[in-house]
TrEMBL record:
It is found in: Cell membrane. The keyword Transferase does not apply. Keywords: Glycoprotein, GPI-anchor, Lipoprotein, Membrane, Signal. This is COBRA-like protein. It comes from the Eukaryota. The lineage of its organism: Eukaryota, Viridiplantae, Streptophyta, Embryophyta, Tracheophyta. The gene is LOC111308898. Its main location: membrane.
């Protein structure tokens, strides 16, 4: 063998290894690409409407372009870093949580906020009319694109200026104040256009910048938030959520409430500006949300599934909850009872993923743990000739997501199986056949 061959082979191996580690190191572990919603993000749009040497009028819009992931209370808390000594002189549609030190501004009216790193929150519903703007005053709540496309946006306006009358510069280091979201740097885009006079005249912003924020479940929580259990009419066993799906009893910080007990008064104290603490019922899986998928019935041309979502969190109601399921037979879904449903065509013609959510004023609120802490529905699906089967766990979903977070699934080898009567019958016939053959040989 030519020794030059080994030298070339070793060099190619070393180069390939270096390229692999370079690509591995260049990918951020916090990146939140979602294959079920590949274009989903929250965009912060910053429009410069008017500009002068001492003051600038700005409109800020927060747009939730995610198909099924929404923002519930306490809502978004937008933050950024000024690059100079800017201050917010007035605001409409939102407010800063702190005024800060405004001593550098002498005489006259003081600014609304002088913080170097302001934190902005949405106004609550029912705010005074002179403080409102279009798409404001929702308490920071943003719906997803599918669930309620009329409530996916928030907006506010502000007048900003600096003590040294410097030109306008875009702030940096944007944050949404929601666990799991990370924001990129501002990017200047084509100026926004606005219609007036019944659409006969168009005006446009002096400049527009977009800040894109994406969600990562790994950044949001170090442990999962939901799990899935299975059962079927053809098998008496129930496949529970995997043990320690979200946490394990006895671990530090893994507190839970035993059945029959209620949370103490100290645990029930809630800060309206913060997410309520997760205090779940003591279970083997320790998840606040459990989704149960039950294959209920089989007909000649259809089959029926029952889905139950249990809230085991003793401290929290889930408003505008939603459930995303991936199953190959969803393309033949005929009827959904008690839930809204919308297929997700994230890859064009492929229709194996769908989103379920509650009916407004009926079951769109998943109450905290208790007798009413569950919602359920039934699905009627048509049997596709050539693909439908109950064998090998085909009747169960491939993925389940609750409020955009991946749920822990049971291992495939534990799925409920069909009764294996055919194998026993073949075995008995084989034993009889060989017994007769042996008897004939001996005779």
């Amino acid at each position: 063998m030519n020794p030059f061959y080994f030298v070339v082979q070793r060099s190619v191996y070393m180069v390939s290894t270096l390229i692999f580690f370079f690509l591995l190191s260049s990918v951020s572990p916090s990146y939140g690409y979602d294959p079920l919603d590949p274009y989903g993000n929250i965009t912060i749009k910053w429009d410069l409407l008017q500009s002068s040497p001492d003051r600038n009028d700005v409109k800020v819009s927060i747009l939730n372009f995610q198909l099924y992931r929404h923002i519930e209370r306490p809502g978004w808390r937008l933050g950024w870093d000024w690059t100079g000594d800017e201050a917010i002189w007035s605001m409409q549609g939102a407010e800063a949580t702190e005024q800060g030190n405004c001593s550098r501004f002498r005489g006259g009216q003081l600014p609304h906020c002088c913080e170097k790193k302001p934190l902005i929150v949405d106004l609550l519903p029912g705010a005074p009319y002179n403080m409102q703007t279009t798409n404001c005053c929702k308490g920071g709540v943003l719906s997803s694109m599918i669930q309620d496309p009329t409530k996916y946006a928030a907006a506010f306006q502000m007048n900003i200026g600096a003590a040294n009358n410097s030109d306008f510069t875009m702030p940096e280091n944007f944050t949404l104040g929601i666990p799991g979201y990370s924001c990129a740097k501002p990017v200047q885009v084509a100026p926004s256009r606005y219609s007036s006079d019944g659409g006969r005249r168009w005006t446009q912003a002096l400049g527009t910048w977009n800040v894109t924020c994406i969600y990562s479940q790994f950044l949001a929580s170090t442990s999962p938030k939901c799990c899935v259990s299975f059962s079927a009419f053809y098998n008496s066993s129930i496949v529970p959520c995997p043990k320690c799906s979200c946490s394990c009893q006895g671990l530090p910080g893994a507190t839970c409430v035993k059945f029959g007990e209620t949370p103490s008064l100290l645990q029930q104290i809630k800060d309206p500006n913060q997410e309520p603490p997760s205090l779940v019922r003591c279970t083997q899986h320790m998840c606040p949300i459990r989704v149960h998928w039950h294959v209920k019935q089989s007909y000649k041309e259809y089959w029926r599934v029952k889905i139950t979502v249990n809230n085991l969190n003793t401290m929290k109601n889930y408003s505008q909850w939603n459930l995303v399921a991936l199953h190959p037979n969803l393309k033949s879904l005929t009827q959904v009872f008690s839930f809204n449903y919308e297929p997700l065509y994230q890859y064009g013609y492929i229709n194996d993923t769908g989103m379920f959510w509650g009916i407004q004023y009926y079951n769109d609120m998943l109450l905290q743990e208790g007798e009413s802490g569950n919602v359920q529905t039934e699905l009627l699906l048509r049997k596709d000739q050539g693909t439908f089967t109950f064998r090998e766990g085909w009747g169960f979903p491939r993925r389940i997501m609750f409020n955009g977070d991946e749920c822990v699934m049971p291992p495939p080898d534990q799925y409920p199986r069909l009764p294996n009567t055919g194998h026993g019958a073949k075995f008995s016939l084989s034993v009889i056949f060989f017994s007769l053959l042996l008897l004939i040989i001996m005779c």
